[in-house]
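Sat 14:20. Reprocessing the chain from the morning session after the first attempt stalled halfway. Input below, unchanged.
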Amino acid sequence: MQNYFLPNPQYIFDTRGRIRLKLLESLKHLVFDVFGPRFTPPITDQALNDLIVGGRAFPNAVIFALHGVLLKAALSENTTDVPKALEILKDIANRSTGQPDQFSVQPLAGDLLHPDDVYLLKYAFADDLGLTTSLVAPASEVTEQCKLLVTEALETLGQTAPDWMEELQLLTNQIYFAVADTDAQQLFGGASVFDAFGAVLINPLGLKDLPRTLMSLVHESSHQQMFVYHLDDEIVLNDASASFTSPLRKQPRPMEGIFHAMWVSARMAVAAQAVLNSPNRPTWSEELREHQTRAIRAFRDCEDTVAEHAKLTDLGSILFSNSKGAVDAI
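Finished this time. C-alpha cells:
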C-alpha cells in the first residue's frame, strides 16, 4: 500500500501533470462558458492551451491565482473582479508564466514583480481573519537577511534529506516574503493556498534562525502536499460549520483545520528527524530537537481530536494512519 506521508517526488511530479490539465479545463470553462456570454473572452482557445500546457515549464503560482479570482467570482456570482482578471489574462500571455527552474525567494513587492502578479498573489493569500488581507513588502534589510536564512536552510535540506528537498521543490519553489500592514505584523507566520499552488507566503519577521526557517518551509510545503490529496478526495467529511477544541488550542476550529495541523506537525517532526539522522547534518541541527518536540506535542493533541471526532474518507483514514505511524517511529 502506498505511504502518502513520506516524500514521494515521483508521485507529486505525476500529479502535477493532472493538476495542469485540470487547470486548463477549469479556466476554459470559466473564460468561455461562464463569463463568455457577458464578457468578451480576451484570449483564444488555442492561446489558452499554449499558456497552460504549451510550454515545458509548469504554470507558476500567478496563473493559479488568476484562476482563483475567476472561480471565486463564479461561485459567489459577484463579477466585480472579473473585468480586471480578464484584462490580466489578455496581457499575461505575453510574458513568462512558467514556474522557475530553481527556488525563487523574493518579497511580494511591486518593484520586483509585475503589478498584476502582486495583485493576483495578494488576492490569493488574503484570508477571512484579516491577517493576510493587507500585505506589504518587508524592509529591505529584513528581506536580505531572511533570503540568506532560506537559502542555507534549503541547502541543508538538500544535503541531509534530498527526497524531502526534491518534493518541496515540486510543491512550492516560489517563496514570497510579506508582512501585514498593521501594528501586529507578527500575527501570521505564513500561508499556503491552492489558489497559489507552487508558492508560499512567509512572514520574515518570524524567521529568527536556521532551525525555525527550515521548519517553516516544511510546514508550508506540507499544506500544499495536503492540497494535492484533496484534488480527488474530500478527506474530511465533518460538517464545515462544526468546530472542535483540544487541550492545546481552546479556540474552536473546523475539523479540516485540525487535520491539516496534525499533518503538517507530523511532517515537521519527521523531517527534523531526517536531518538529525544524516551524517551531513549541520552543526546547528541539535537545535531542531526543540522544534521537533513542539511539533510532536501538537501532533498528539490533534491526533486525539481527530481520532475522537473526525469523519474521514478511506483516503483520509490512510493519511491519518500514515502520519501516526511516521511519528510513532521517531
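Residues 118 and 194 are 17 Å apart (CA to CA).
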